[in-house]
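Checklist before submission:
- one chain only
- standard amino acids only
- sequence pasted in full

Submission:
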Amino acid sequence: MKKLIYPIALILTAFLILYSCSPEEETQAPTSTVQSTTPEPEPETPAPVVVQYTLTVTAGEGGTVSSEGGEFEEGTEVELTATPNEGYRFDGWEGIESNESTITLSVTSDTELSPIFNLMIQSPASYGVDEYWGQIVDFEPEIFFASDLSNTLREKFMIDLNLAISQFGNYGPLECYVLGNSTNAANELAIEYCNRRVERGQEGDLNGCIDNQMNDNGYGMEYYRKDSDGNGIWASLNGSRRHGYHLLQFSKPYHYEEDPSSIEYTIVVFHEYFHVVNAANVFSDESIYIEGIGQQIPERGPPAMVEGSANYLSHYLARKLFDYPNSYLNLRLYMVTQMDNIKRARNEFPNCNNVNLSEINYGDSCDMYSLGTWGIAYLMDRADNINAYQEVLFPLINDIGYYAAFEQTFGITFDEFEMEFRTFLELPISQQLEIIPDI
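Returned file contents:
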């Protein structure tokens, strides 16, 4: 038997092949070494710098304030309320421009504030007919509000009245009655008004006085209360020259709450107070009766000029003092509406094309108010003095009469003015507006 001899190298090779093909073998992937590093710490955000300011509030004599101030972060809003003591009134703030007794202040700098309180000198309980008439007085006007009016309405009315007084002078004695919607509240004011008249010897029949005030066909408390129902704005000077006092009556000043950005009621207050100034500078008590209108004192001037001066100067003053972003018209745009009224009346009523300002009266179809407003604007521009009417003309009336005072103030007779003004009305509106201040 022949032996088969296999070379040893062949045997070893076969063994290695069998081993490497074993199904139970696991192959290990080569590994790599990763070196880890510790991350750098994030830089710390510095704490925000807190800016603080000092608010110093000093009440002073005559009242209190709700806070004495302190240290506050920048932008903090602080509410402050100034309250006058009895016998004093609040007249604004030193340190900021505001006449509101309650303000909200954003603290953005070191600030010093103090409310202004002034002693109120009471109006005299009795006086002679000529004791104070025509004088700048140091005592307060007497204001009577219907019981249904809110504190907001009362406060804002007083702000506007005091502004008018500060601009035109404090003429007195002056009584103001401000109506609301309530008939009972109007009756209460009528009783208070009539009691004062009887006590001062200015009325003899208390019940008759009350009845007249509550007659809605007259110019009394019920007349203005009734107008408040329709959210109208009605007011008038109804004072009695023969008794030596001024009387203003107003319908409800609802604008102060419903539309704080409006200057409509402010203008009404200024308008009526300008009538007080006009009346105070006329000592004559000679009047004429006009059917449907009542008694008028001719020495105050033609009605178109009486109403025109109060209208134009109140609109001018309100826009000068206030910068309401929602004010419905600037002065020039307002005057455009007045000229439109004049043109409309002249188109509808041909006689209005040649009407004289000295001849038209209340209720005239030629629109006395609009004509008078433009007439006064023309004169103020001609005199180059917005205050010429009350500061120059008024003080002359008692000595030389209205028409002579007019000529001395403006350098032309009233008839010459009428002719000039009629020519002016024919100009294009662009030229007419050149005489109106840009406010």
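Reviewer check: The chain has three domains: 51-118, 121-280, 303-435.
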